[in-house]
């Protein structure tokens, strides 16, 4: 239960605003159906943002199933051999994005583009924005972890 | 001005969103525009209230484009520049209404410290806003923050502030 709603989940709280609920879901779902970015990469970035926010609710959420080792190693992805070069480029970008988007370097952007092209970089940035925002909303709303 | 990290689509449509870098991901454009339209036109908060949260976010993220924009429907709903000038770090001591100050303070918690709201602040929020209004405000902040951070991340941001630009919410 949140401090302003008796609902327990993000979706149930968003349903308190029926004028936007379905439109939010359609927009959010669109990121998980993109041809230019693998969903595993998106899920890794979403989870890394949750870790950086120390947000258990978003860490425990599962948008897609990942191999257990990918979750286990995520806080030290840069020392692990379990992530592809493309995933590592996106994770590095996601970390800097989370801390300060003005600190993103051209080299970090180019590393993402080398794997996913210009469209992939734009898609990643949009998706990171939604993951970042929804993590903060989970914290603002004090959503319980599962 | 730094160089943009991607180029806009070569084929122009006349739609400000589709013709921007966002047009390179057409799968998200229509859902974004529909969600954005709901935020600005269909919720319980006035367009002036949504615009206040948007401008507070723009100033904190330092998106030069977002700071310069004024949406015409917000002006029509009563948001004038004397009120906009009060959306600074001293807004708590401004002449804004208690409701407007709460709206801006909630926006600041999102931006600065999302786990930092006190019990007293949460009580003030629920005394002033309905659950639907809090969801509306929260989702408006998420969307504005997402795309202001997007503009910054894509590079090419002017270094100096731009003149005020009155525009219509893109559809």
Low-confidence stretches of chain A: none
Helical residue percent band of chain A: 55-70%
- Assigned CATH class of chain A: Mainly Alpha
Roughly what is the average pLDDT of chain A, rounded to an integer? 97
Shape of chain A: globular
CATH topology grouping of chain A: AhpD-like
Count of extended strands of chain B = 2
Cα distance, first to last residue of chain B?
Answer: 28 Å
Order of helices and strands of chain B: HHHEHHHHHE
How many alpha or pi helices of chain B? 8
Class per helix and strand makeup of chain A: mainly alpha
Which class of secondary structure composition applies to the elements of chain B? mainly alpha
The CATH superfamily of chain B turns out to be AhpD-like
For the record, the count of structural domains of chain B works out to 1
Q: Please give the largest β-sheet of chain B.
A: 2 strands, parallel
Amount of beta strand of chain B: under 5%
Q: Could you characterize the architecture of this molecule?
A:
The complex is a heterodimer of chains A (146) and B (171). Chain A has helices at 10-14, 18-30, 39-52, 56-60, 68-72, 85-99, 106-141. Chain A has 146 residues and is mainly α. In chain A, helix 3 packs across helix 7 and helix 6 (85-99) packs across helix 7. The mean pLDDT of chain A is 97. With 171 residues, chain B is mainly α. In chain B, 54% of the residues lie in helices and 4% in strands. Chain B has 8 helices and 2 strands. Chain B has a two-stranded parallel sheet. In chain B, helix 2 (47-61) packs parallel to helix 6 (98-112). The longest helix of chain B is centred in the last third of the chain and has 23 residues, at 131-153. The two termini of chain B are 28 Å apart. The mean pLDDT of chain B is 95. Classes of the chains: A mainly alpha (146), B mainly alpha (171). At the A-B interface, helix 2 and helix 7 of A face helix 1, helix 6, helix 7 and helix 8 of B.
